[in-house]
Amino acid sequence: MTRVTITPVAKVNLRLVVLAREDSGYHSLETVFCAISLNDRLEITRAGDGIELMVTGTVHVGPTEDNLVHRAALAFHEALGTAPAISIRLEKVIPSAAGLGGGSSDAAATLRALNALSGDPLSSGKLLELGAQLGSDVPFFLGASPFALAWGRGERLLQLPPPPSRPVLVVDAGIRLPTGPAFAALDEARAASAPGTTPSTTPLTVDAADLSSWEALSAIAHNDFELVARRQIPGYNSFLELLRKHGARISLLSGSGSAIFGVFDSAEAVRQCQRAFAAIGVGSYPASTLDHWPAPVLRD
């Protein structure tokens, strides 16, 4: 086979608690990852010499050498001990710097696709090792399940059976909140808040089986970065209110922002909500939660 295509998907965080800051400077987290069908498109072809990367779409991804897809392809060939000779075409749809994991998902998809194209020479454990070196969210996208409880920096995973698929609407808030500055802003906001007014940073105590229903997930849905989002995203509260008005059982910031999402019980409710956001000039993406990962497709 000479070509492989795959659809890297986005994720949302149904819960995200920022715990202590470690001596390394990184924060310890507790989060519930849930993959959704909003996706990019990745195609890799055996061609030429080295790694040729072409990116299309409206999402700015920065210099090629810094792109996680390029770095993932380089890491894969270094692990295999072979010289790369591939052409990669990446069509971007997932908004960047929005807490949706688009870059991490692209990197994981690159590792999956290259492994499939090469006849699966690397074990799942080795792929996870490579993914962890690329970014904290990458291991989730390489896991067996599109639903997981994670902690540490997000790289320690308890993979769980996903709850039943539900329609989702992802709202593009129109600004970008890079992860590093978002953590710094959260630290500053917490330091400036009066005692007892900041969100709880207590880890969750729950039976993993309780995470299998949307009722239980609705009860624990939370994101500590809302403290930052309410100050930095114009209209944030009204966006949440509009999602709830149209029946979202969970309405929340994803990751460190700036995307906001709602989980609904019907596709019709999502369509009506999307029209309501369009009426106020705000873009949104209909999707659904996933119960399995998209598989690479090999072609001659």
Molecular structure report:
With 300 residues, the chain is an alpha+beta fold. It has two domains: 3-161, Ribosomal Protein S5, domain 2; 167-288, 2-Layer Sandwich (Alpha-Beta Plaits), CATH 3.30.70.890. Helices cover 32% and strands 28% of the residues. The chain has helices spanning 68-80, 102-117, 124-134, 138-142, 179-192, 214-220, 226-232, 236-245, 267-279; strands at 3-6, 9-21, 27-39, 41-46, 50-57, 85-92, 147-152, 156-159, 167-171, 222-223, 250-253, 260-263, 284-288, 297-299. Strands 5-6-4-1-14 form a five-stranded mixed sheet, covered by helices on one side. A five-stranded mixed sheet has the order 8-7-3-2-10. A hairpin with a 6-residue loop joins strand 11 and strand 12 (260-263). The radius of gyration is 19 Å and the shape is globular. The mean pLDDT is 90.
Largest sheet, in brief, is:
5 strands, mixed
Shape: globular
Architecture (CATH level 2) name of the largest domain: 2-Layer Sandwich
Major sheet: order of its strands? 5-6-4-1-14
Number of helices, where a helix is a run of at least 4 consecutive DSSP H or I residues: 9
User: Which fold name corresponds to the CATH topology of the largest domain?
Assistant: Ribosomal Protein S5, domain 2
- Written as H for each helix and E for each strand, in order along the chain, the element string is EEEEEHEHHHEEEHHEHHEEHEE
CATH class of the largest domain: Alpha Beta
pLDDT average, as an integer? 90
Summing up helix and strand content along with how strands pair, one would put the structural category as alpha+beta
* Number of extended strands: 14
Distance between the termini: 5 Å
